[in-house]
Amino acid sequence: MAYIVVTNDDGIQAPGILALATALRQLGQVSVVAPSTNQSASGHKKTLFQDVPVSQVVLADGTPAHSVGGSPADCIAFAALGLLPWPPDIVVSGINRGSNMGQDITYSGTVTAALEAAIQGVKAVSVSLANRHADSVEDYKEAARVAVQVVQKALEKDLPTLTILNLNVPLCDRVHGIRLTRQGVRIYQDELTNAESLYRIVGPEPTGNYEEEGTDVWAVHNDYASLTPIHLDMTAHRFIADIAAWDITV
Fold first, then answer.
1. CA distance 222 to 170
2. Which mean pLDDT values do the consecutive 10-residue runs of the chain (250 residues) have?
3. What superfamily would CATH give domain 2-244?
4. 3-state secondary structure 173-229
5. Taking the domains of the chain in order of start, what are their residue ranges?
């Protein structure tokens, strides 16, 4: 049986992580380590040279877990540095309340926790549900079912170095299937509010280019689960030749 580490960015008591941990137990032993508070959109934040509190907590079903007063990436870094037995066979991050597609992945604590696992040399999957209002374990049932199928395959196969799988599941009773996708384009509708010199970014959920078939945004919009491989090499390889033609000299 596999040894699986589960984390998230919505916080240790979020229903999505409980649904995920419960579902993944059919594949093996599960250890849970997650932020003590909601760390959504925290990106790949890694806390250095600062004290970070860690405590033992119990999830709603009695599952023991580690609660970390830092970011999702901190959770995995701490686990790799001795907080948990290491390495696991796989790290699974989620299930996020809300999708993580297109440019979202640069903001997402869910995705960057998985990327931190890849940096630590462990295969990883990030899982998100396209429902910002999912507030019960039952809401995540279909996403957890799909996640188990993807994680099982990921356990059996090899992933390239510094590469993770990013899974997004639509809000529906049963997905039409799974599509292998590339990143689409998100369209953000952020607004800035101000009350007594206190500012806040708010706004409706992002939209996207739903017409571009083959993208994560298209797949989820059409009730398919979207599976996108993501790697940490962010070099724009095709642009290198163009830059060379600039003939920069110093």
1. 8
2. 97 98 97 97 96 96 95 98 98 98 97 98 98 96 98 98 98 98 96 94 92 97 98 96 95
3. Survival protein SurE-like phosphatase/nucleotidase (3.40.1210.10)
4. CCCCCEEECECCCEECCCEEEEECCEEEEECCCCEECCCCCCEHHHHHHCCCEEEEE
5. 2-244
